[in-house]
Each structure stands twice: as C-alpha cells, then as structure tokens.
Amino acid sequence: xxxxxxxxxxxxxTSWLFALVEIHIEGPHGWATSLPTWRVQNRITRIFYGGKPxxxxxxxxxxxxxxxSHAPLLIGVHPPxxxxxxxxxxxxxxxxxxxxxxxxxxxxxxxxRKFRKEHVWWHAKxxxxxxPRDYWIFLPxxxxxxxxxx
Length: 150
Prior knowledge:
Radius of gyration: 16 Å
Strand order of the largest sheet: 1-2
Shape: globular
Structural class: mainly alpha
Number of helices: 7
Order of helices and strands: HEHEHHHHEEH
Transmembrane segments: 57-76, 88-107, 127-148
Number of domains: 1
Helix content: 55-70%
Keywords: Membrane, Transmembrane, Transmembrane helix
Distance between the termini: 10 Å
Number of strands: 4
Strand content: 5-15%
C-alpha cells in the first residue's frame, strides 16, 4: 500500500510544482505560443502530438523530465529492472497528464471552467467528451504500467 501512496503523493507534488513553473513561463499563452522556440509540424508530430507542433521548449522539457525520472535507476539507488522501468514510465506518462491538467486548473488565465476545447486550441482537434484524447489514451497506459510494476 505504501508504494502506491508515496508514488501518488510524489506524482501530485511534482506535477503541481511543474505546472506552476510552466504557468510562470508561458502565462496565458499555452503550448509555448509566445516563447522564442523553434516549431516543427509534420506527419510525425501529428501522430505523437495530436496535431500540435513540436516545440524546442516541449522537447527539451520532456527529455529532462524523462531523464530525471530515471535518476534513481541510473545513479544506483535502485537496480534497473523491468518493473522499475515500468514504474518510471508510468510516472513519466501520469506526470505529464496531471501536470497539463493542473496547468489549466492553477492558471489564472484559465481555471477549471475554461478546460474545454473551445478555450484550448492546442487540444481542440482531439478533444473527446470532457478531456483531450491524449488523456484518454495515456491515462490507462500509465495506470497499467504502475500496476505491473508493483
């Protein structure tokens, strides 16, 4: 029981803090629209980013979080195992879903009431019912990876 509780508490705290960092960086301009960063949009980015352009900002931030999520395995705190890798990937996936949602909830320019496709151009194309398609696809994957890692 404790591994799940500690995982969830750590996931929430890190997602909350990173959402606040991104709110300070992006302000009301989601998906790095006002940041001085490069953008690429092609077939590959349509598949992996749901029609949104890949930005340098997002690529480097995502790679940083992926590497930092692996830190306990890579610096010898825990021996690398398949279960450990599943838990790291679960954390990585669930972190980005929760962080993205918290970006809206905590952002004074949005709030929970504006978490709708008509207010969020970068999720609007692939919005399914009450949330973006990516949440529907990756939330079960992240939970499944967590369950198999226990």
